[in-house]
Amino acid sequence: MLRQYELVEKVRSYDPEADEDLLNKAYVFSMKAHGTQLRASGDPYFSHPIEVAGLLTDLKLDDETIATAILHDTIEDTLATPEHIEKLFGANVARLVDGVTKLSKIEALTENERAAENLRKFLLAMSDDIRVLLVKLADRLHNMRTLHFIKNEEKRRRIARETMDIYAPLAERIGMYEFMKEMQTLAFRELEPEAYASITKRLEQLQEGGGDRIARISSGVKMLLSRAGLDAEVTGREKHPYSIWRKMAERHISFEQLSDVMAFRAILPDTESCYQALGIIHQRWPMVPGRFKDYISTPKRNGYRSLHTSVIHNEKVRIEIQIRSREMHAQAEYGYAAHWAYKADIHEPVAQTAWIQDLVEILEHAESPEELLEHTRMAMYQDRIFAFTPKGELIQLPKGATPVDFAYAVHTNLGDQAVGAKVRHKSRSLCG
Ligand code: MN
């Protein structure tokens, strides 16, 4: 757990202007408020909000977000009140903490796909300040990291399922791929322990074949292209266990048949050199039939452009290679929070929150068809009322809907027989 001065120092390292007082006050307040509460791990409860704040400092988030992370469970789990938080930490932090508290109150019932989809939309619509969602995602990630301490298996599985269905897709949606991958890996380990064990074992065996395989193959591809006069930037990565599992399940194939356990990306100066690089790679290694895709001549609907191919590399290892120009690459990554967060230059203190503004901009003024579609959906959801049945199922109604509409949405019989309604514990007319 980060100590108080370490946390403050960390924020100040990327944002010298950060409000030190605010962070110190939040740290002490949260520590006192959580008092002797303990986590399932036996750690003091207080370590949880601090870890969550730590995760967000890795993304170089602003002081208000970090303070919110430190305070995020105080309203729900301690005697602290929203009024008190506002008085001590100001209106912004109070609003953010309130937003996170509201998100946490929503009990997810994710028995079917539609419910999950509804809930994701709902969470997005509720997060009018994207920072609320960022804190919530970091909160969930830390809870997943400590999931194994929970003794009740059913509870662990429910949390893992919810993470897989709701939170990992949300993280993906706003481009936080590192969060998404780790959430999926941890949830997968809980939900499919045998598959997880067998895949990670295979991945380890692959690595034993020579530690730096990815680095070796990357530099081999780069050299091959540079001998042909092409200046390429080549990077490689290993797919994470859950995405391997999903591919295996989707295509009904074994681990050995899977061609993209390792994926590489070659970035070239322009479109022409992309096709040249493709030719050179195919001449050097045989391609795997049926795996070549030309998204440059036929871009994906969301505007994505790239060449995808799989080849049989030395030692009978199949690898996937994506080839794209710098411009295509920038476009593919544009709009993705993680990308900005990771590339943000430490020496530019102003840059660290710019990506949040960019993200909000994109959510507001989407350009590609897919983004636009998402944007329209979100706008659509702002005209909606979300109501829960006593069993926790989420029902969507248009704005202006009345209690009797809700009754009919639950069941025709209920609509026919309803005699009264309560909204937020207060009696209301059925039709208004
Ligand atoms: Mn929490």
Describe the structure.
The chain has 432 residues and is an alpha+beta fold. It folds into 3 domains: 4-175, Hypothetical protein af1432 (Orthogonal Bundle), CATH 1.10.3210.10; 194-341, 2-Layer Sandwich (Beta Polymerase, domain 2); 351-428, Beta-grasp domain (Ubiquitin-like (UB roll)). The protein has 20 helices and 9 strands. It has helices at residues 4-14, 20-34, 47-58, 63-71, 74-77, 82-105, 113-126, 130-145, 153-173, 177-191, 193-208, 213-227, 241-251, 271-284, 326-333, 337-343, 354-364, 369-382, 403-410, 412-417; strands at residues 233-238, 262-268, 293-294, 307-312, 318-325, 384-388, 394-398, 421-423, 426-428. The protein has a 5-stranded mixed sheet. Strands 6-7 form a two-stranded antiparallel sheet. A two-stranded antiparallel ribbon has the order 8-9. The longest helix has 24 residues, at 82-105. The radius of gyration is 25 Å and the shape is globular. The model is unreliable at 334-382 (pLDDT under 50). Manganese (II) ion (MN) binds next to loops.
